[in-house]
Each structure stands twice: as structure tokens, then as C-alpha cells.
Design goal:
The strands form 2 sheets. An 8-stranded mixed β-sheet has the order 6-7-8-3-9-10-12-11, sandwiched between helices. The chain is of the alpha/beta class and 327 residues long. 31% of the residues lie in helices and 24% in strands. Strand 7, helix 6 and strand 8 form a beta-alpha-beta unit.
Length: 327
């Protein structure tokens, strides 16, 4: 059974100078017991997709078309306030970008947890405290952290605390949006281990891990989804995407990886190098046809006129590119 099923999802920002088509016609299915990495440059729609999947919709963001099903529940048909009460934190949990600032500096961690769970459950204060202690032990977090204020915690510790809070009710899907972006390398590893620990112990069924850092995604993800300008351009097993990217944009991303691993460096050298020049397009007036064509060294006439469909070119390997389609 798929934990996530997304069909033709369109989530737009309605701003003063136009409509930003941040997520524009995405189909995505994620099995249970999977960690999926979503990668791409800044502004490609990764964070908007995370917000849409959790129905964390604040103006000017709106879902204008498509459906989202999480663990068998079509949440896109539910009122947003009902999703917040009955789904968010229970079926799907979101650790948003810049989540380290999500904790309230003047409220102790245990009181923050109490306020969160009182809104979602009818647990007593004692039950909430016991649940928090159990989860902190499972993640090897010091129990005295519960009695601390957020400003007393390091950035890595705050991120781990947020992971613990987000998964207190064992949601089926955890979405982590850039959870390691503001951390040093050693702290990044600790946070990745905390996420994998939650997954390994079955405290969540699947994880969506969003990052612009492909080397970090490679350490944790079973599958990679590559986004560009609001679209999915390629998806497949992590090692397939890393070692043999198909879409020209994916090739450019992989060429940009800085890795100390000699075997990866050699593979990169042997590949046809594509350097990503220019900037991603405006999503208020996106280019016609393939949205990558203004930056693509292989662009053909049809690329400038018609949008390529995403097709399965190998088993569980999908790409949206006219190089793999018959015009």
C-alpha cells in the first residue's frame, strides 16, 4: 500500500504581481517503508510541495487542482482546520524549513509538548509527560532537555527535539524540509542518524527528506525525486540517479556534487559534464514547453513548444525529457 499518492497536484501562490506556479502538475506515489529524497535548486518547489502534502496552507498559497492521499485518507478533500486537528502530527508530520526557530524561546520544551498534544489528544498531563520521556529515551536525548528552554539548546539539539516532538504520535509520514541546512557536518550526521533511527524503529512508516544537498540525501534516501521549476523531471533509486542521471538537469546537479569519495569522483569525471548555467525561470511566467530548455545544451525545437510527459524508461526509473520520447 502506498503511504503517499499525489495526482496532478497544483499548488500556487497568489501574489500581487501574478500567480507563482510553484508546484504545477505533480504525480507521486511513495510506498511504505521508504525514505524518499527530494532534490533541486532553491525555488524549484520542494518546500511548497512539503507544505501542500501536509496541508500546511497559509495565504497566499492555495491548492488549485489535484488530490493528496496520505495513508488511505484523501486529505486534499478535507477542510484545512480539520486536517490540522485530525491529520497533522497523527498521519503526517512536517518539520518545516528553519524549524529550529519553531520552538518558543520563553516556553520550556515540556510545556511546548503539553500544548501541542493537548490540541491533538485527550491525554492527561501525566500521560503526555510519560510519552515525551519515552520518545526522548528512544532518540537518546537527555531527559533534562524537557526542563530546558530552547535558547539553552544547541542548533543540533533543537533539531533533534523537534524530530522527537513531530513524531510523538507515530505519524505514518514524516516530511523533513532541509533539516540539516544550518548545521555543521558532524551535527548533520547526528540529525540524520536520529531520523534514520525513527524510521528503523518503525516510529514512522516513511520519510520524505528534502534538501538541495545531494550528498546528504544520498546518505539516507532509498529513492530520489528531482524537481525543477515546479515539475518532477526524474525519479528513481538513489544510486541510479547518482551514478547514471538521465535528465540533463539531473546530470548538472550530480556534476555539482562535492564528494571526497574517489570512486564517485571517477564516475563523475567519466560522465558527460553539464554545467548548470543561468538561473531557474520565473514561475509567474514559466517558459513554454520543457521548463529547462533555456538552460539545456540539448534543447530541440519541440522542447521549446511542448512539455514532455514523464515516462518509465526502465523499471521504477522515470524521466520527463524529449531525449527519451518520440516526438
Amino acid at each position: 500500500m502506498n503511504i503517499v499518492e499525489v495526482e496532478n497536484l497544483k499548488a500556487y501562490y497568489f501574489v500581487r504581481n501574478g500567480i507563482v506556479r510553484a508546484v504545477d502538475g505533480i504525480d507521486l506515489a511513495i510506498d511504505k517503508n521508504m525514505i524518499v529524497g527530494i532534490v533541486g535548486e532553491s525555488g524549484c518547489g520542494k518546500s511548497t510541495l512539503a507544505r501542500a502534502l501536509s496541508m500546511s496552507l497559509e495565504p497566499p498559497l492555495k491548492i488549485v487542482e489535484g488530490s493528496i492521499t496520505i495513508d488511505g485518507i484523501k486529505i486534499s478533500e478535507m477542510p484545512v482546520d480539520e486536517v490540522r486537528r485530525k491529520i497533522l502530527g497523527i498521519k503526517v508530520a512536517l518539520i518545516p524549513q528553519s524549524a529550529m526557530n519553531a520552538l518558543i524561546p520563553t516556553i520550556k520544551v515540556k510545556n511546548f509538548i503539553r500544548d501541542v498534544l493537548k490540541e491533538k489528544t485527550d491525554y492527561s498531563l501525566q500521560e503526555i509527560h510519560e510519552l515525551a520521556m519515552k520518545r526522548f529515551k528512544e532518540l537518546n536525548l537527555p531527559l533534562n532537555t524537557l526542563d530546558m528552554y530552547p535558547f539553552e539548546l544547541s542548533g543540533g539539539m533543537r533539531q533533534r527535539v523537534l524530530i522527537a516532538i513531530a513524531t510523538l504520535l507515530n505519524p505514518s509520514l514524516l516530511i523533513a524540509d532541509e533539516p540539516t541546512s544550518a548545521l555543521d557536518v558532524s551535527t548533520q550526521r547526528i540529525v540524520l542518524e536520529a531520523l534514520y533511527d525513527i524510521y528503523r524503529k518503525g516510529l514512522v512508516k516513511s520519510i520524505i527528506f528534502i534538501s538541495h544537498d545531494i550528498a546528504t540525501v544520498r546518505q539516507i534516501a532509498d529513492m530520489i525525486v528531482v524537481m525543477y521549476a515546479g515539475k518532477i523531471v526524474e525519479k528513481g533509486a538513489t544510486e541510479d540517479i547518482i551514478n547514471e542521471p538521465l535528465h540533463p538537469y539531473s546530470k548538472g546537479l550530480m556534476f555539482s556534487i562535492l564528494t571526497p569519495e574517489p570512486q564517485i569522483k571517477e564516475r563523475v569525471k567519466k560522465r558527460e559534464d553539464i554545467i548548470l548555467r543561468g538561473e531557474p525561470p520565473s514561475l509567474i511566467i514559466p517558459p513554454p514547453g520543457c521548463r529547462f530548455h533555456p538552460r539545456c545544451p540539448y534543447a530541440m525545437d519541440i522542447c521549446r513548444k511542448e512539455e514532455p510527459k514523464i515516462i518509465e524508461v526502465e523499471r521504477n526509473r522515470f524521466v520527463s525529457c524529449w531525449l527519451y520520447l518520440k516526438a
